[in-house]
Amino acid sequence: MIRRHLWVSGMVQGVWYRGSCSEQARLLGVSGWARNLPDGRVEVVAEGTAGEVERLVEWCKVGPPGALVTGLEERSEKPEGIAGFAVL
User: Fold this and answer.
1) Given Cys at both, which of 4, 9, 31, 64 links 20, Cβ 3.0 to 4.6 Å?
2) Alpha-carbon distance 45 to 35, whole Å?
């Protein structure tokens, strides 16, 4: 199990980024959460197997139709054992 903490910038709020991220995470079997930040970014935490999490990270670099991702900061962290994926 691995954990990635992401900060996604660009046009990522108001385009159903968090909801789409949640759907992708569930399809991949990834746990975690996504939330909007006051500065216009979306923050995502993802936990799962390396392959599953890396596929979600790759999706986050593009996002859903309507989004325009211009940057993604990523940090590895110790997994906490999160269950499910929440939109905060």
Assistant:
1) 64
2) 9
pLDDT digits (tens), the chain, 88 positions? 999 999 999 999 999 999 999 999 999 999 999 999 999 999 999 999 999 999 999 999 999 999 999 999 999 999 999 999 999 9
Closest CA to 68 of 14, 5, 4: 14
- Distance CA(10)–CA(71), nearest Å, equals 7
- Rounded to two decimals, the pTM is 0.96
36 is catalytic: yes
- Domain 2-75 is found in CATH 3.10.450.50: no
Please state the domain extents for the chain. Answer: 2-75
Tell me which of 3, 4, 26, 36 is the catalytic residue.
Answer: 36
